[in-house]
Amino acid sequence: MPTAIAADSVGLVSPRVAQFTAPLELACGRTLTDYQLIYETYGTLNPERSNAVLICHALSGHHHAAGYHSLDERKPGWWDSCIGPGKPIDTSRFFVVSLNNLGGCNGSTGPNTVDPATGKPYGADFPMVTVEDWVNSQARLADRLGIEQWAAVIGGSLGGMQALHWSIGYPERIRHCLAIASAPRLSAQNIAFNEVARQAILSDTDYPEGIPKRGLMLARMVGHITYLSDDAMGTKFGRDLKNDKLNYDFNSVEFQVESYLRYQGEEFSGRFDANTYLLMTKALDYFELGDLAKASADFCLMSFTTDWRFSPARSREIVQALVAARKNVSYVEIDAPQGHDAFLLPIPRYLQALHNYLKRIEV
């Protein structure tokens, strides 16, 4: 529970729901006849409707990016360090929109919501969704909000892929694209990690009829290892023992890093939907950056030196493609020991670079 809400917080916020009845054709060939998107907004849309910023979330993210839902909430939204008055995504200047994507498990239509055709939750029958599908649904949300053009679309990791697709899928509707710790496509190694995580879920005997808690726990443990750097794990845990002695037992938790991974897996398996995890990892695998010649936005790419999941080399690939396409692009590589998770953390140089770029955007 926050003892007091800081002056640079967006404060108490309430999610909103947009219901859509126009069918949405998906890349997989199926159609959602109707669906809903849950979202939050921070700041005020100006009379010209020119100051709107879209936040696209990563694999396990959601709409609650900043502020608090109640005074009892222990932690603020997942990107609270970046969103608020005077922060890099300054809500005294920008009207910020953050949503939960289709296929999510936090209020938007997804596997744990009811299929109108059957009257039962979609579950494993929810259609496959892609980055393109998400951007198309986000464009409809923008229409609903009366936003013809985003001042910027911003995202980290899988969110960065969405921002990049906005720039070529709707080039006239985005002025600035900020892709952080992202990539033009997944490497074979990344697809392999995702497949191991999916197989942990699919091989759980409680899937698909029940809740595959153990499978989801293992999937998160595998994923979490890739989000941290070797240095970050070494500094945080080293080879420290949990109880200062070895038990010579496969089932016991002996090292602190084992305890940490089990805690992360246990916590995640209690709040996230297994089918959503399967969908999100497949959307990552399917993403392939299109023809940047179509883009008209200005670009900002950011990467982190110890991120081996989406390494700086992957961001530089995008930068080189943008330069070849004669687009305006800024790039910063931030020295940070935290690995891929750095894009979620309040690293001073990162926040300053983000602030410096965004303050140049005219609204």
From TrEMBL:
Active site, UniProt feature: 157, 307, 340
GO molecular function, one term: homoserine O-succinyltransferase activity
Site-annotated residues for Important for acyl-CoA specificity: 309
Main subcellular location of this protein, as a coarse class: cytoplasm
Sequence positions that bind substrate: 220, 341
Highest taxon of the lineage: Bacteria
Catalytic activity: L-homoserine + succinyl-CoA = O-succinyl-L-homoserine + CoA
InterPro entries xref list: AB_hydrolase_1, AB_hydrolase_fold, HAT_MetX-like
Keywords recorded for this protein, A-Z: Acyltransferase, Amino-acid biosynthesis, Cytoplasm, Methionine biosynthesis, Transferase
Any one annotated GO CC term: cytoplasm
Pathway: Amino-acid biosynthesis; L-methionine biosynthesis via de novo pathway; O-succinyl-L-homoserine from L-homoserine: step 1/1
BP terms from Gene Ontology: homoserine metabolic process; methionine biosynthetic process
Enzyme Commission numbers on file: 2.3.1.46
One Pfam entry name: Abhydrolase_1
SUPFAM superfamilies: alpha/beta-Hydrolases (SSF53474)
AB hydrolase-1 domain mapped to chain residues: 51-344
Subcellular location: Cytoplasm
PANTHER family: HOMOSERINE O-ACETYLTRANSFERASE
Assembly mode: Homodimer.
Role summary: Transfers a succinyl group from succinyl-CoA to L-homoserine, forming succinyl-L-homoserine.
NCBIfam families: homoserO_Ac_trn, PRK00175.1
UniProt record similarity statement: Belongs to the AB hydrolase superfamily. MetX family.
Designated name of the protein: Homoserine O-succinyltransferase
Organism: Azomonas macrocytogenes (Azotobacter macrocytogenes)
Phylogenetic lineage: Bacteria, Pseudomonadati, Pseudomonadota, Gammaproteobacteria, Pseudomonadales
Name of the coding gene: metXS
